[in-house]
Design brief:
10 strands; alpha/beta; two-stranded antiparallel sheet; Spore Coat Polysaccharide Biosynthesis Protein SpsA, Chain A; 6-stranded mixed beta sheet
Length: 242
Amino acid sequence: MNVLGVIPARGGSKSVPRKNLTLIFGRPLIAFTIDAAKRSHYITHFVLSSEDDEIISIGRKYGAPVPFKRPAKLATDNAPTLPVVQHAVRELETQNRLTFSYVVLLQPTTPMRRPEDIDNAVEKLVNTEADSVISVCDVDAYHPARMRMIVDDQLIELPIKEPREMARRQDLPKIYIRNGAVYAVRRQVLMEQNSMIGQVSRPYIMPVERSVNIDSKLDLLLAQLLMHEEDYQHIPRINEIA
């Protein structure tokens, strides 16, 4: 069983400039995802996909294979993730003369993902014969039943309504949101159906405290607060690698 892990890490980022190289405990953000991919038991091949020379150089120093440079058209602000992953699959299959059974998208913006999260998601995908398994976490206090749209300066309820006015969080049905940590998908679904999700998608539930997805400076501060340096001592600091 051949399983490809794809780590997309382009150079551009508006909310946090050079986000993928931002240091946490002296280690660039991409290092945490590279480490998780390296220590996964199920991933047989993985690749760092980037158009940025500095990211490529640092990624290689942390042990990420970078056998190609991502085309510029797939590294713009508006470029979707799907063709980036498909491009990586085609390149790796051609270079290695093999066909992957499963593909796992590992976004660097979720640094607290563990190797066992990857393996548990892949194992569930294989065992359940689903199209995909996606990591999620409980929305907790940010329940959509409590959310409102603003139309003509009025608060308008969403289709999901509270069972009663000012309902307690505990009384609301469980709702989950994708946390961006793991997208495991069958190759056929990805390449032939042009989807990262497919029709039958199953959840891999992760705890909220390990589901920080860094899209802003506030997210970065939260990740730094929740992460503990002793958990990452095995990953060298940026100034410790040649």
